[in-house]
Specification:
single chain, alpha+beta, ten-stranded mixed beta sheet, five-stranded mixed beta sheet, 14% helix, globular
């Protein structure tokens, strides 16, 4: 099942994608794709619906972030062996954890803004994991049972802010529009193996990232179990699990986004995103 949110920014309605890829309006059934609506019981009720009985939504309607009311947007750094190598950094002994401000979250095809004083705005296609039930001290063996579904995330980064502006990485990760999420939340039953998903990212038609979740250093189950040692995870929390090689910082010479660029990125089975890049007002 593919769930989504559509409509004007800040006023999105819940929806689902039917077998013909027509958007169907779920607002008469649930309030939002968020919180307790992501539980196994709630998802089972939605899966039992006949989509043809739901109102159609025009195909050109804006898509919002596929999850609403996100409490935590947690990111994992240096989680692909080949990306760590291109960065010239050793693989960590434990997952590298940082937070991205939830105010960075936008829809999958919304415009991305390069922040003021930026000189190194970069791209990162990542597998997003959406938590579906309260999670605390969960074992690796049980961790995936706590997942509502998966999605595409572009973990945009300003490398100069991230590396040279003191403190943790959050400064370089949290600018407005630095967190496109979607287009769909694909429920976990449709993802047979989250460690076997090809992924890509292109800028202006040139493919920079062409990887797979199979090269993750810490797999999804390990990441969830590890995080749950240090904080409880709540329904609707989102984990961005790291990026494969091909980021701008890893190019020779380094290559970064500029106004007028267009990004296209996606993960097999989870959909694609397209973002135009502009300078921040």
């Amino acid at each position: 099942m593919k769930l989504l949110r559509f409509g004007a920014a800040g006023a999105e309605k819940p929806g689902m994608l039917d077998a013909s890829e027509t958007i169907r309006d779920l607002s008469g059934v649930i309030d939002d794709v968020a919180g307790d609506m992501l539980s196994d019981a709630s998802l089972a009720k939605l899966a039992a619906l006949d989509p043809s009985t739901l109102p159609e939504v025009p195909a050109d309607t804006r898509l919002g972030p596929c999850v609403g009311q996100v409490g935590k947007l947690i990111c994992i750094g240096l989680n692909y062996a080949d990306h760590a190598a291109e960065s010239g950094l050793a693989l960590p002994e434990e997952p590298v954890v940082f937070f991205k401000a939830t105010s960075a979250i936008i829809g999958p095809n919304d415009t991305v803004e390069i922040p003021r004083n930026s000189v190194k705005t970069d791209w990162e296609v990542e597998l997003g994991v959406v938590i579906g039930k309260p999670t605390k001290y969960v074992s690796k063996a049980a961790a995936l049972d706590h997942v509502a579904g998966y999605c595409v995330i572009n973990d945009l980064s300003e490398r100069d802010f991230q590396i040279h502006r003191s403190g943790q990485w959050v400064k370089g990760k949290s600018a407005d529009t630095f967190g496109p999420i979607g287009p769909w939340l694909v429920t976990r039953d449709e993802v047979a193996d989250p460690q076997a998903l090809p992924m890509f990212l292109e800028v202006n038609g040139h493919r920079y990232q062409d990887g797979s979740t199979e090269t993750m250093h810490f797999d999804v189950a390990t990441v969830i179990s590890h995080l749950s040692e240090f904080m409880s995870l709540q329904p609707g929390d989102v984990i961005s699990t790291g990026t494969p090689p091909g980021v701008g910082m890893g190019q020779k010479p380094e290559t970064y986004l500029k106004p007028g660029d267009k990004m296209t990125l996606g993960i097999e089975g989870l959909g694609t995103q397209t973002q135009d890049v502009v300078a921040s007002a």
